[in-house]
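Q: Here's a chain of 276 amino acids. Please give me its 3D structure as C-alpha cells.
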Amino acid sequence: MIRKAALVVLVLACALIAKAWHDTMRAPVVEQLTIEARSMAAGSTPVRIAMLADIHVAGPDMPPERLARIVAQVNALKPDLVVIAGDLISEKRTATHIYTPAEVIAPLGRLSAPLGVVVVPGNHDHWAGWEALAGELARYRQITVLRNQAARAGPLAIGGVDDDFTGRADVPATVAAMAEMQGARIMLTHSPDIFPQVPVDVDLVLAGHTHCGQIAWPWGGAPATMSAYGDLYACGVTRQHGKVLVTSAGIGTSLLPLRLFTHPEVWLIEIRPAKR
C-alpha cells in the first residue's frame, strides 16, 4: 500500500514538473485587444502595438537564442510599434548562466516596426546595472528609451515611466512631458501599480512586472503578484474610470526559472479612433 502511494506521488510530481517546464518554455501566446482612443484624431489609421515584458534573459529558460526566436515571432505579427515594459535581464541566483548586456540586447536589435521600439527599465534592469544595458540599447537607432519622459510615435503620444518598484517612477513628470503632444495617449510602465495615479485622459497603460503570478493556482489567481494591489491589477485587462490597463504575464521568469499555470505572452493591441 505504501509503495503504491509512493508511486502515485512520484507520478504526480513528474507530471507537475513536466507541466511546469511546458508552461515555461512554450512559445508565447499572442493575446489581442482593440482599444478606441478618445484622443486619437478622427480618420487616423489604426496602430498595432506589440508589447513584450519581463524578458529576463538568463539560463536555463531564456538564453539569447530563445529570445531571438520570440523576436522573429513578434516581427511576423507586423506591428507598427513595439514596446517593452522592462526587466530585460535577470540576475537570479537560480540562473545557470548570466549573459552580458551585449548578449541580452542583441536579439532586441532585430525587432522591426515602422514606428520603432520603446523601452522602459524594470527593477531587475536597475539591480543588474542599467547603465551597461542602456549603452547597448543606444547602439540601435530604432530603439528609444524613456525614463519619466515622452515621445511621439506616429499618431501616438507615449509616456514612459521609470521603475516604480525601485522608487524611480515620476508619473507627474511623465504626464507633463506628454502634455504638449497630440495623439492617442499611451503610458508604458514596468509596474502596474502606478495605474491609480494616471490621469483619466490617458487612453491606455501598458505594464508587466507581475508575471501574472508566474506560479499560479490552477483555478485562477496566484499566491503572490509583486503588486501592492494584490490581484486587482495583476493580470490581463483592467478598466477603471475610462482608463484601460493591460498587464502582461511577460515571457521570462524571475527568482525560479519555472512557470506553472501561467504562460509566456505577447500582447498585440490595435488602437483606433473612437467612434464619434
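Q: Can you summarize the key feature?
A: Helices lie at 2-25, 64-76, 101-105, 123-137, 171-178.
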